[in-house]
């Protein structure tokens, strides 16, 4: 399983989100980063908690879903970068 879905670092997740057109929203006093994108009139918001990296499969799945994707699609993009 770890071969197909290796752990992702904070840098990896940010690169995927940037590729998808998300931008970081400034936050104060928290380790969580909010990445946002509006597409087809819908706001997508992904919370990235860098101190938890490398991220568990549960967190990666959650971040992918927040971005409107399935985990496998998140990894497909990661492999292209």
Write a brief structural summary.
With 81 residues, the chain is of the alpha+beta class.
Compile the SSE list and pairings.
Elements: H1 10-19, E1 23-25, E2 32-39, E3 42-49, H2 57-66, H3 71-80
Antiparallel strand pairs: 1-2, 2-3
Question: Characteristics of this structure?
Answer:
3 strands, alpha+beta, 81 residues, Metal Transport, Frataxin, Chain A, single chain, globular
Overview of the structural elements:
- This protein is an alpha+beta fold.
- The chain has one domain: Metal Transport, Frataxin, Chain A (2-Layer Sandwich).
- 37% of the residues lie in helices and 23% in strands.
- It has a three-stranded antiparallel β-sheet.
- β2 and β3 form a beta hairpin.
- The chain is globular and about 35 Å long.
- The two termini are 21 Å apart.
- The model has no long low-confidence stretch (mean pLDDT 93).
Helix-strand pattern:
HEEEHH
Total number of domains: 1
At CATH level 2, the architecture is: 2-Layer Sandwich
Radius of gyration, CA atoms, in whole angstroms? 12 Å
**Distance N terminus to C terminus?**
21 Å
CATH superfamily: Hypothetical protein
The number of strands is: 3
CATH fold field value: Metal Transport, Frataxin, Chain A
Strand order of the largest sheet: 1-2-3
Sequence stretches where pLDDT stays below 50 over 5 or more residues: none
Mean pLDDT: 93
The total of helices stands at: 3
CATH C-level class is Alpha Beta
Rough shape? globular
Estimate the helix proportion, in percent.
25-40%
Profile the largest sheet: 3 strands, antiparallel
Family: Belongs to the HicA mRNA interferase family.
Protein name: YcfA family protein
GO molecular function: endonuclease activity; hydrolase activity; mRNA binding
InterPro entries: HicA_mRNA_interferase, HicA_sf
